[in-house]
Amino acid sequence: MRCVIGQDTEMALRHPLRVALIDLLTTAGSVTANEAARRLGESSGACSFHLRQLERYGYVEPVAGAHGRARPWRLTTPPPAPKPAHGLGSLARELEDEGYHRWLARRHTAPERWRRDEAFSEVLHLTPDELAIVAAQINAVLAPYAARKRPRGSGPVGVVARVFPLIPEADE
């Protein structure tokens, strides 16, 4: 549901909060700047600013009939054209990697109850259809947590799942 076409549009997705807002709208459908701020742990002013920037680039729009400060936003319909592989995908991976490296360097400063992480890795032998099923199952597990209101005592947790075919080296 995202695109990166041309330099101006690519600029729209260079800010991590804009990427997070698009991801939130993908799962939530629509949110106000205040709701986005609460769910993302950001200020409502920052969310409002970046939602307007995403509107400028054609990624989001106000929900029809809504006005004022409590104006909900949604992804544009139809969504922008699919993005090239070198666009948001590489940016998202860099943000994921940056967040994970920050965690590794500073986890000793986290409250004791948060000083854990889980890492999973597996090489599977799947058909293309099975690959799609596994990806859908992972999304189905995560969706209820992404869509719910932020529970008391919760904090942001990065969940990274990459399901992709392993391509042999050129000389194999």
TrEMBL record:
It holds the Pfam family HTH_20. Transmembrane segments: none annotated. Coiled coil: none annotated. Residues 8-94 form the HTH arsR-type domain. InterPro entries: ArsR-like_HTH, HTH_ArsR_DNA-bd_dom, WH-like_DNA-bd_sf, WH_DNA-bd_sf. GO terms for molecular function: DNA-binding transcription factor activity. It comes from the Bacteria. This is Predicted transcriptional regulator, ArsR family. It comes from Asanoa ishikariensis.
